[in-house]
Amino acid sequence: MNRFLRLILGLLLAALLSLPGAAVASALAALIASDPPDNAALATGPDHVSATFNEEMQPEFAAMTVVGPDGNIWSTGSPQVHGTVVSTAVRPLGPVGTYTVNYRATSADGHVVSGAWSFRLTHSGAGEPGPAAVAPAVKGITSTPATA
Predict the structure, then answer these.
(1) pLDDT one-digit tens code per residue, 6-36
(2) Residues 119, 37 contacting (CB under 8 angstroms)
């Protein structure tokens, strides 16, 4: 009986010790806010866009672009990471329509998070776009302009 009791207590202890590790392992970085907010209607374009996550992000490996309704890139410069916030500068916007912010970042624990949100420009601006956005090449397939 003494062996049986020790076996049961050992199994319970092992189960209890594995619970905190399981919670940490399953916790992934998540987008909790964006600026401008998803689906916002703006009369003038923002000078930057930002994504706020629920945990610290690594400054290395961050990527963020703003693609306009014309299929061109309207973001400029490299993304900046400050704690839980990833941001990038935006050129003065041009055509009316939907602009999509695409992001990819790595959390402090190494998990990659990617996604997108959009906002709408309701009055055209006089800004000049950057280069055309292209979809990444996949196994030898030539890149083509991305659709916003």
Answers:
(1) 545 444 444 444 444 434 444 689 999 999 9
(2) yes
